[in-house]
Amino acid sequence: MQDNVVVLTFAEESKAYQALSELKAAAVQTRLKLVNAVVIDRDAGGFRARDGFSDGAPADGPLVGTLLGSLIGIFGGPLGVLLGGASGALVGTVVSGGRLEDRTSLIDQMLSAVPPGATAVVATVGEFAEEVIDTLVAGLGGVVLRRPAAAVMAEVDALRDAEEAAAKEARRVLREKRKDEWSAKYESWKDEIQDQWTALKQKLKG
């Protein structure tokens, strides 16, 4: 069994919900293992998570701390905006080909697989045969993007490290800029207080 993260993209919202229902049915029939899944959509403002599923329970809470939960957090956060800003894959084309495949980041590829106006099911699955999901999605007129869960997890971890490093660097730069700003003002403050003291001394002498 291969553990994968799959993105099933549809032009119609209803087809995404139908795909989620059929994934659940396939899991009950032991044709695949459905670890968790969430329906997302995307508009000009970004991604929004909708209904979900996690080991037989609604996915509102159980996604916390999971690979899928991390992915959805990235999709909807600043990294998702950064990586997905130039996404332009079209629903109805072969997602594994063309410009999408040129994107070296797996998460970038996933973001690109859900263009604005589309609805998708993002799921962590165990697959005995890829044909099960491929056939299901093809029957609903959708597109499948599939990546190994271990590779996606490695990239999520790398992004977390990069985000932490970027935050540390941003704090360092802010500290340095603060120092530069104050050091410039120190000189003007010294001149200001010297002028004031000189004026006061002249008054005292008079």
Structure in a nutshell:
This protein is of the alpha+beta class and 206 residues long. 53% of the residues lie in helices and 22% in strands.
Give an overview in words.
Strands 3-2-4-1-5 form a five-stranded antiparallel beta sheet, with helices on both faces. It has helices spanning 13-28, 67-76, 78-84, 99-102, 106-112, 131-139, 149-205, and strands spanning 2-10, 32-43, 46-54, 119-127, 143-148. It is α+β, with helices and mostly antiparallel strands and 206 residues long. It is rod-shaped, with a radius of gyration of 26 Å. Residues 79-98 have low confidence and may be disordered.
Write the SSE topology.
Blueprint: E1 2-10, H1 13-28, E2 32-43, E3 46-54, H2 67-76, H3 78-84, H4 99-102, H5 106-112, E4 119-127, H6 131-139, E5 143-148, H7 149-205
Antiparallel strand pairs: 1-4, 1-5, 2-3, 2-4
Helix pairs in contact: 1-6, 2-3, 2-7
